[in-house]
Write a structure and sequence with these properties.
6 helices; 4 strands; elongated
């Protein structure tokens, strides 16, 4: 083997090491995403919910999480594939797909934050399917009854204070 062949072989080896290191250092977020879907597939929503960050839990209770997963066909995930992994400044992200037991493919992005001991899921985003009109503004979700009651009470309090002045 000539000098050029040795240089090329060395370069290919170096690139392989860099890629292997990237997968090794980002495997924590990918395996945490896999663990989450394994818990959901086993109907262990307590375990799945324990993998969520405090901020996530402030915005969704266990039932809302379960409803989201059911509505998006994510309760029986057979396999996941994360083609993009990233960790930076205590935050992580995986992008890829979940393959369901029925053969469906659901594109996902999952953001993580570093907890005390482990990675915690900060958000789960599913790409919208079907026809999409990019010119329309996105409709926000209607608040649940507890949130509506809280908004009404806060509004009444402000109104009462302004009338009293």
């Amino acid at each position: 083997m000539g000098t050029l062949g040795k240089v090329l072989l060395g370069f290919v080896g170096f690139v392989a090491i860099v890629i292997a290191a990237a997968f090794y250092f980002t495997s924590g977020v990918a395996s945490k995403a896999d663990d989450f879907f394994a818990a959901v597939s086993n109907n262990d929503y307590d375990k799945a919910y324990s993998m969520l960050s405090e901020e996530f839990k402030k915005n969704a209770n266990k039932q809302q999480l379960k409803d989201f997963l059911e509505q998006n066909n994510l309760t029986k995930v057979k396999e996941t594939s994360w083609n993009s992994r990233e960790i930076k400044n205590g935050q992580g992200k995986v992008q890829g797909k979940a393959i369901t037991e029925t053969g469906g493919t659901v594109p996902l992005t999952i953001h993580f934050v570093k907890g005390k001991d482990d990675w915690l899921i900060y958000s789960i985003t599913k790409s919208a399917s079907g026809l999409q009109d990019t010119n329309q503004k996105q409709v926000t979700q209607i608040p649940n009854n507890d949130e509506l009651l809280s908004l009404v009470q806060a509004t009444n309090k402000v109104f009462t204070q302004s009338v009293a002045k």
